[in-house]
Design goal:
The protein contains nine helices and 14 strands. Helix 5 packs antiparallel against helix 6 and helix 8 (223-233) crosses helix 9 (240-253). The protein is an alpha/beta fold. Bound molecules: zinc ion (ZN) and fe (iii) ion. Residues 55, 57-58, 128, 165-166 line the site of fe (iii) ion.
């Protein structure tokens, strides 16, 4: 049985660790030491590294980990990932036989040029593209690309567990409340997330069903979100890409 465990890194990054029996794989190891400590403490052998995109807080620990153990490194074909052995893109598969796990690769550009997500076993590892109740900044792509990537993820089943790269949930919810003030599901989510954080627990994984109901960046066609975007811009827009661009810009200044 595969277990998925968050390891904290830096201030608010998660390194997702997939474990079964004596084996483990890690997603986005921005630092090596939390992984090394965990493997040692739990008596696990590293068998694979998966990277979603090239940012240092996601790949910074890879070189040191492969120095410790030479394992396959999966990552986007279009980005420079340290020690990459398996360059991947849309529809490629990642097989990790030691964990009896298989993931499909989705191209989700926008935050970075060739950002990928891994989807399998009802779980989605989406790096800095989809966050709990938010999304990543658009650094290397366009708003249109980012919205298309988010919509692609949003089309996965409701029960899909969302494992993203950062614990940004409370701040994201605060912003979401400003955009979508009358959303009662969102209000309930804020209460629940605050309780988890007060208890020192992660707010992740969330589910795609929850995200579709509360994440403003997946709700750019909702009248309430369109209205808020119009108020922010002081203009009348309704097409989803313009609405997305407006609320992303608003979030950057929030
Ligand atoms: Zn990033
Ligand atoms: Fe990041």
């Amino acid at each position: 049985m595969l277990e998925i465990v968050p390891l904290s890194a830096f201030k608010d990054n998660y390194i997702w660790t997939l474990r079964a029996g004596k084996y483990a794989a890690v997603v986005d190891p921005g630092e090596a030491h939390p992984v090394k400590d965990y493997l040692l403490r739990e008596g696990l052998t590293l068998v694979a590294i998966l990277a979603t995109h090239h940012h240092p807080d996601h790949v910074g620990g890879i070189a040191e980990l492969v120095e410790m153990k030479k394992v396959p490194v999966f990552g986007p074909r279009g980005e420079s990932i340290p020690a990459l052995t398996h360059p991947l893109g849309e529809n490629d598969r990642v097989e990790i036989p030691e964990l009896a796990a298989e993931f499909f690769v989705l191209d989700i550009p926008g935050h970075t040029r060739a950002h990928v997500a891994y989807y399998g076993l009802g779980s989605l590892f989406c790096g800095d593209t989809l966050f709990a109740c938010g999304c990543g900044r658009v650094f290397e792509g366009t708003a249109g690309q980012m919205l298309a990537s988010l919509s692609k993820l949003a089309a996965l089943p409701d029960a899909t567990k969302v494992y993203c790269g950062h614990e940004y949930t409370l701040a994201n919810i605060k912003f979401a409340r400003a955009v979508d003030p009358d959303n009662s599901v969102l209000a309930a989510r804020e209460e629940q997330a605050a309780k988890l954080r007060a208890a020192g627990r992660p707010t992740l994984p969330s589910t795609l069903g929850e995200e579709r109901a509360t994440n403003p960046f997946l709700r750019c066609a909702e009248p309430a979100v369109i209205e808020s975007a119009n108020k922010y811009l002081g203009a009348r827009i309704a097409d989803p890409v313009s609405v997305f661009a407006a609320i992303r810009e608003w979030k950057n200044r929030f």
